[in-house]
Amino acid sequence: xxxxxxxxxxxxxxxxxxxxxxxxxxxxxxxxxxxxxxxxxxxxxxxxxxxxxxxxxxxxxxxxxxxxxxxxxxxxxxxxxxxxxxxxxxxxxxxxxxxxxxxxxxxxxxxxxxxxxxxxxxxxxxxxxxxxxxxxxxxxxxxxxxxxxxxxxxxxxxxxxxxxxxxxxxxxxxxxxxxxxxxxxxxxxxxxxxxxxxxxxxxxxxxxxxxxxxxxxxxxxxxxxxxxxxxxxxxxxxxxxxxxxxxxxxxxxxxxxxxxxxxxxxxxxxxxxxxxxxxxxxxxxxxxxxxxxxxxxxxxxxxxxxxxxxxxxxxxxxxxxxxxxxxxxxxxxxxxxxxxxxxxxxxxxxxxxxxxxxxxxxxxxxxxxxxxxxxxxxxx
Length: 380
Prior knowledge:
This protein is α/β, with parallel strands linked by helices and 380 residues long. It has helices at 17-31, 45-53, 70-81, 94-103, 126-133, 143-152, 176-186, 207-215, 240-251, 267-270, 288-295, 326-337, 341-358, 361-374, and strands at residues 6-9, 36-40, 56-59, 85-88, 109-112, 137-138, 193-198, 227-232, 257-260, 275-277, 299-303, 319-321.
């Protein structure tokens, strides 16, 4: 059967958690026998990831906000590929998707996997109402966001389908050999306490905020030689990582601050952590990296904002602090650092159990496949 492909529309130079989810999703579809293509810029980080994962790239120009160059590229994609479905991940892609489908007279099903933002924008104007009619479904990954969309967007409520993110619990797991290897490579003691964070190393991700909250003059880790902070990911612009390293020197903790570049085996890093801290200042809906850490048996410390509060119970599997409040973050870190080692391990085990029972990747994929079938995507 000559089945038409599902296209993941990712016309970006970046390769953040959002894009990595799209790649993982595409890889799963492909493993199940569904043809998939990634619409992304040639030579980009996404292109390299496609090559590493055995995914086929459909080249489109890199797009920033409402760049008009993506419109003819989308039209060409619809005409030449005749995809069974196109999945977008950012709202600005609704516009080129809509017009490309219209002018190509395509029957393609269109989806918006709404994984960035919290649905705060009012979109009940006539133009957006027309755009939303062309979508088969909008899929947020938090109940909080789904509620906002139903309230503020001019879309049929039945088209808003919340599917919470899932994690590969085999890949992300507790692993003592990984833990030992990472710590030995960084010169971190077996019984030291390591706080980590992953993803883009960026001011809005709280990179500097966390460093200061933990190690400044009032920081709970400043006087504790057994406390380390570790970041893994890409710096958002050249020189920012060096800025953080200089700050660590100024704070006198450069031996206990570790910066690792982006790596495809980030699960090996999670295994070496005790706590996962996320001092993000943007309005995060549902941070995937937190789920990865929890699946790895790491206790999360994240802001109580958006759909993040749906991830776990405060004081049981992790801790919440007040969003954009450094004093609250510092107090939360202090509470976590004062816990006995056994208590941290118990909470980490509970975090892992919660993910296995409620956020396993395979269960999530079955919900997406059922949605594709319900919406009439050919071959599903």
